[in-house]
Amino acid sequence: MPRHPEEPTPAEPAPEGAVRPPHEDSRQPGPPPRPQATNDETGSDAGGPAPAEDEHTAAMQELEDRWRRALADLDNLRKRHARELERERTVERSRTAAAFLPVIDNLELALSHADADSDAVVEGIRAVRDQAVNVLELLGYPRHAETGVAFDPARHEVVSVVDDPDVEPGTVVQVLRPGYGDGDRQLRPATVTVAKRE
Known about the structure:
Blueprint: H1 39-45, H2 51-112, H3 118-138, E1 143-144, E2 156-162, E3 172-177, E4 179-180, E5 190-195
Parallel strand pairs: 2-5
Antiparallel strand pairs: 1-4, 3-5
């Protein structure tokens, strides 16, 4: 019987013991073979992040660490400065208070002799006053109670103006309350009476 040229030839039975060649129908089912990776894919997946990214990350980490250390140093400096400032204030308060202790002692001594001669008591109180003024001057606050000087708005506070033909206008004729200190270190200005200007 004639065969059609497109018909497949039936397989002849292989002799017993012979090895059959591999055939598509005889392949065992299994996972498909994995495609081979190209050079571009292996470079990005297998090698991890690029070296430039690693350097950038390390530089950012170092800058952040330095920033945090600088903040910590600044905070420690601020706390140390606050402690030193408070310590200095305490020392100055103690020094000032200790400077006035002899003044208090002398006031108490004057009070204990209040029944003595009045002139002696007055002299004793004046001496105590001078001692207190000296302490203030040593602390940087000299006393200002001068009369006959020209009025200075930086050192004087005028509370009244009087007619006095014997002195120049604008001259301090009376000090009602002394002033202490000068310039930025002024405790208070002197309260004065000034001659009237024409």
